[in-house]
Design a protein that fits this description.
It is a single chain. The chain has 175 residues and is of the alpha+beta class. It has one domain: Alpha-D-Glucose-1,6-Bisphosphate, Chain A, domain 4. It has three helices and eight strands; from the N terminus they run E-E-H-E-E-E-E-E-E-H-H. It has an eight-stranded antiparallel beta sheet with strand order 1-2-8-7-6-5-4-3. Helix 2 crosses helix 3. It starts with a strand and ends with a helix.
């Protein structure tokens, strides 16, 4: 489990998560290719709102998870899927993309998720207070699910912080 956040000022956000999987890219590829489908083997629908797309995973498919909306802008089966964010209620200045990619190495595979956006100051504050830690928890849960579905025993499953638990509780009370 590793997370990289590069602070480029409040005008942009770069958030990168990686998980090294001791298996081949070919073993991880079907997990990526199931994203947003009925039998999604990557997105942690057991704990979080599902990723739903209006078409099978392909360029042009639209959808999202919870209040987050996006469109598939690039899809290389078994390698990479990129989504461009669409305007959203509290994140209408969240302009950019997020993507999953599989990076093969000699003796392992890297599963990576990246968010790369330009934002205004109010959106940056909203991201930092309400979204970023929830996003981090969702991605780490997705990586745990990827390990499980690739037949890899996780040595350290992700754990939610107290802040994530508080935000989830507040959200459940709001409903």
């Amino acid at each position: 489990m590793s997370k990289l956040c590069i602070f480029r000022g409040w005008k942009s956000a770069l958030n990168v998560h990686e998980r090294v999987l001791p298996t081949t890219a070919e073993a991880v590829a079907p997990l990526l290719d199931s994203l947003g489908g009925d039998k999604d083997r990557l997105w942690p629908t057991e704990k979080w709102p599902p990723m739903i797309l209006d078409h099978p995973l392909e360029v042009g498919a639209r959808g999202g998870h919870s209040l987050i909306r996006y469109q598939v802008t690039e899809y290389l089966p078994g390698r990479r899927v990129e989504f461009e964010f669409e305007p959203m209620q509290h994140l209408n200045k969240f302009v950019g993309r997020h993507y999953f990619e599989i990076v093969p190495r000699k003796e392992h595979t890297i599963l990576r998720h990246t968010i790369d956006v330009e934002i205004d100051f109010p959106t940056w504050i909203y991201w930092k207070i309400f979204i970023e830690r929830i996003h981090d928890a969702v991605i780490e849960d997705a990586f745990d699910k990827a390990e499980k579905n690739a037949g890899i025993a996780s040595s350290r499953p992700a754990r939610w912080s107290h802040y994530v638990r508080l935000l989830r509780w507040l959200r459940s009370r709001k409903r």
